[in-house]
Amino acid sequence: MAWACRGFFFALLPILFSRLPSEPPLDRGFVPWLGHAVEFGKDAASFLSKMKQKHGDIFTIQVAGKFITILLDPHSYDSVLWESSCQLDFSKYARLLMDRMFDVKLPDYDPNEEKVMLRSALQNKNLPSLTKAMFFNLQTLLLSDPSNLSRQWTDEGLFHLSYGMMLRAGYLTLYGNEEENYNDPSCQDKDRAHSAEVYSAFYKLDQLLMRAARSMLTAAEKKEAANLKGHLWKLLSVKRLNSKANKSLWLESYKQHLEELGVDEDMQPRAMLMQLWATQGNAGPAVFWLLLFLLKHPEAMAAVQGELEKVIRIRGQTMKQMQGISQEMLDSTPVFDSVLNETLRLTAAPFISREVLADMQLRLADGRKFSLRKEDRLCLFPYLSPQMDSEIYEEPEKFKYDRFLNADNTEKRDFYKGGERLKYYNMPWGAGINTCIGKFHAVNSIKQFVFILLTNFDLELKDPEARIPGFDKGRYGFGMLQPENDIMIQYKLKD
């Protein structure tokens, strides 16, 4: 009888491990229900690269009971990015992550509607005020803090410096200052103290969020996360934010949006913490990688500093004399733009995910058609293709500061795969309706921080032979990657 049962099981294997001929190749893994969850969560980039070699540029995997179709053909991304939300929807997965990571539940939440509502507060006519506020807040943290103004070398972790300064200045810019006068020393002291408190708790929480998103926190970690979130909710309470000076239009708009949704005062701080992570969680890591690549590639550092000196010289002022950095100046740095694009190509690794709401057919650029099943998930991973695709980029694993520059110093935008020009050749900001609405503010903020740092401080690696750290592989899929370990630098005020 046992032999008969075993024979029946093996007869079923071809059925269990396959799907319809019109569907993408299916790879369930060897563990029932769990499937490839362990490999996928441990190192998504390596795992999906192996799956691509095995199955091609579209395939389906099983992960903890969920079937996820992965598409890695950038020529075909438009078929996902612009598909109707009646077929492919982002909001369901977004609500799941909001609850798991931040304990946020918003009634009638529509991420696309929210983006439309908040876009104008971060772009166009409102961008200059954000840029100017970021400049003043960076000066408060970098140039008005006595602890930073020594002409003796100071040792610090580059990641801690980059993430801390960017998150604190970005927080003050969007959420407001303790008092109105940017230049008053007592106001600056309060801003430095308060933003440091926010960053300290936020950074500790950030180290737990990826495991929270995957429901993998231990009991001790759940307790720690709850304590950290509780502390941050108090710092972001309705009463506390209402008392702020220099609040951004973005903050006022988002607060009004929450009120219109009927979100109570207990839930609002949770949503504000979620937005702090969404708006400030990527710029600091981006600055870390950019500065590290510059420090490890002297020719790139020389090119950036030469360009910056030229831009400042043309305007007849030193950086210390400026009361802000104009958009014209920020837009006059093609070398830096190439360095930033190359940095993001190497280190930005978000997933673009959609829930399949109804059985549908997906048509690829080469004419192939694949059936997708209702309740499956469809996912793009631009980090693998186009960003690390050797058919698109020569030696894609290497940093080349001028990779996005033409010979005449204009931005290079012509990249090819399969002999055809790519619409999507670098996607750190997403694309289509998924494009980051805060992109322009984020780029301006990154530029301002690096410009202020390089023009006012000497900066060098503590150990010039230190190796570039590997990635924290658990962060694949959630935006900018963070390093496995920090790198020590030393800096001092220029003579």
UniProtKB/TrEMBL annotation:
Amino acids binding heme: C436
Record-given protein name: Prostacyclin synthase
Binding site for substrate: R100, L106, N282, R377
Its membrane topology: Single-pass membrane protein
Superkingdom field: Eukaryota
InterPro entries registered for this protein in UniProt: Cyt_P450, Cyt_P450_CYP7A1-type, Cyt_P450_E_grp-IV, Cyt_P450_sf
EC code(s) of this entry: 4.2.1.152, 5.3.99.4
Function: Catalyzes the biosynthesis and metabolism of eicosanoids. Catalyzes the isomerization of prostaglandin H2 to prostacyclin (= prostaglandin I2), a potent mediator of vasodilation and inhibitor of platelet aggregation. Additionally, displays dehydratase activity, toward hydroperoxyeicosatetraenoates (HPETEs), especially toward (15S)-hydroperoxy-(5Z,8Z,11Z,13E)-eicosatetraenoate (15(S)-HPETE).
One Pfam assignment: p450
Reaction(s) this enzyme catalyzes, per UniProt: prostaglandin H2 = prostaglandin I2; a hydroperoxyeicosatetraenoate = an oxoeicosatetraenoate + H2O
GO cellular component: caveola; endoplasmic reticulum lumen; endoplasmic reticulum membrane; nucleus
Cofactor(s) it depends on: heme
Signal peptide stretch: 1-18
GO MF, one example: iron ion binding
UniProt keyword terms in alphabetical order: Endoplasmic reticulum, Fatty acid biosynthesis, Fatty acid metabolism, Heme, Iron, Isomerase, Lipid biosynthesis, Lipid metabolism, Lyase, Membrane, Metal-binding, Prostaglandin biosynthesis, Prostaglandin metabolism, Signal, Transmembrane, Transmembrane helix
Subcellular location: Endoplasmic reticulum membrane
Family named by the database record: Belongs to the cytochrome P450 family.
GO biological process, one term: negative regulation of inflammatory response
